[in-house]
């Protein structure tokens, strides 16, 4: 039995990487978006790789920025190549794998004033039977002063990391509210459905889906998969639909939190999201309150072209 709470560790590391990223925004500024994006990606990646190596030696890591294909990327003033992920063969036989996206919503991070970007830290763990599942996850929303995380009871909670921010649960003034509250996905209002979609790459079928459903649909463009799934869990939208491309790191941590908060999270054909596979592509996802899932899955199947790759 480990004496470390993996849920608390995920939240601590996501929050710390988030604070680091707020500092990168201040330090680098918005003059050159490419420099700001690369510096944020790589500084957060290096922080998480070093923290995981120190706190969880022996665990495998799969990070967006640890692929060999990003070896040419450099943070401003840093000549090292990014620290590499655990080799694939080793990761596939590992008992514990951290799946991290050091900066999700990189584009939004580079746009002054935008708050829809996130840090994702998830733990995938193999049980005694050899089957793996998401065991813990945390999504930091540094510019919103919030972290959404799983907890040891199988649930999820919302942590206010910036006491100056109004609490989105109670909408009360910051400091008088509890710092951490349980997180449960709220049910949608009858007859209405707000669906979060990518700002830049919404699935091509989603407009047809909106027209087909028997409810009043509003499409809400938001950056970052973590920020969109958080928006579902905070009741700012009612669903997130994506297809056409994404990777395990884009959804592992937010899916872990969503499941802990009682949400439905699956592929768009209703099959389970599976992690720590040889090929990290995981191109589509649906997250919503369980009451909306049958309608959305049927609707997506109906407008098809939306089958998983
Ligand atoms: N068609 C696609 N192919 C590959 N990745 C995609 C994708 N659509 C979205 N993503 C990734 O999913 C995350 C959320 O995207 P979006 O904000 O458009 O919804 C982004 O992660 P990163 O910001 O970490 O690169 C983005 O790169
Ligand atoms: Mg991402």
TrEMBL record:
Residues 62-88, 155-180 are annotated as: Disordered. Mg(2+) binds at residues 64, 101, 103-104, 250. The keyword S-adenosyl-L-methionine does not apply. Residues 73-82 have a biased composition (Basic and acidic residues). Gene3D superfamilies: 3.40.190.80, Fructose-1,6-Bisphosphatase, subunit A, domain 1. Its EC number is 3.1.3.25. InterPro entries: CysQ/Inositol_MonoPase (IPR050725), Inositol_monoP_metal-BS (IPR020583), Inositol_monophosphatase-like (IPR000760), Inositol_monophosphatase_CS (IPR020550). PROSITE patterns: IMP_1, IMP_2. Coiled coil: none annotated. GO terms for biological process: 3'-phosphoadenosine 5'-phosphosulfate metabolic process; phosphatidylinositol phosphate biosynthetic process; sulfate assimilation. Its cofactor is Mg(2+). It is an enzyme of class 3 (hydrolase). It catalyses: a myo-inositol phosphate + H2O = myo-inositol + phosphate; adenosine 3',5'-bisphosphate + H2O = AMP + phosphate. It holds the Pfam family Inositol_P. Signal peptide: none annotated. GO terms for molecular function: 3'(2'),5'-bisphosphate nucleotidase activity; inositol monophosphate phosphatase activity; metal ion binding. Keywords: Magnesium, Metal-binding. The keyword Magnesium applies. PANTHER family: 3'(2'),5'-BISPHOSPHATE NUCLEOTIDASE 1. This is inositol-phosphate phosphatase.
């Amino acid at each position: 039995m480990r004496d470390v709470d993996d849920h608390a560790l995920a939240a601590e590391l996501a929050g710390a990487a988030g604070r680091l990223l707020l500092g990168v925004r201040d330090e680098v500024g918005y003059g050159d978006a490419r420099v700001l994006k690369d510096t944020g990606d790589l500084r957060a990646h290096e922080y998480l790789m070093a923290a995981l190596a120190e706190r969880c030696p022996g665990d495998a890591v799969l990070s967006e920025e640890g692929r060999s294909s990003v070896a040419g990327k450099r943070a401003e003033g840093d000549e090292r190549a990014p620290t590499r992920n655990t080799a694939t063969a080793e990761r596939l036989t590992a008992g514990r794998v951290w799946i991290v996206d050091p900066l999700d919503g990189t584009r939004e991070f580079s746009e002054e004033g935008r708050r829809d970007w996130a840090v994702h830290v998830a733990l995938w763990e193999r049980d005694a039977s050899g089957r793996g599942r998401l065991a813990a996850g945390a999504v930091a929303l540094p510019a919103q002063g919030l972290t959404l995380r799983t907890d040891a009871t199988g649930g999820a909670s919302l942590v206010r990391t910036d006491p100056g921010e109004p609490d989105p649960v109670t909408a009360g003034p910051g400091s008088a509210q509890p710092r951490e509250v349980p997180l449960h996905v709220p049910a949608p209002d009858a007859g209405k459905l707000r669906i979060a979609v990518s700002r830049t790459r919404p699935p091509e079928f989603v407009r047809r889906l909106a027209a087909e459903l028997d409810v009043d649909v509003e499409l809400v463009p938001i950056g970052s998969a973590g920020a969109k799934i958080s928006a579902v869990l905070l009741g700012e939208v009612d669903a997130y639909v994506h297809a056409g491309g994404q990777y395990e790191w884009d959804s592992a941590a937010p899916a872990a939190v969503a499941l802990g908060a009682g949400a439905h999270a699956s592929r768009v054909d209703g099959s389970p999201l599976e992690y720590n596979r040889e090929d990290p592509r995981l191109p589509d996802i649906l997250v919503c309150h369980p009451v909306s899932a049958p309608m959305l899955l049927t609707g997506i199947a109906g407008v098809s072209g939306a089958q998983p790759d």
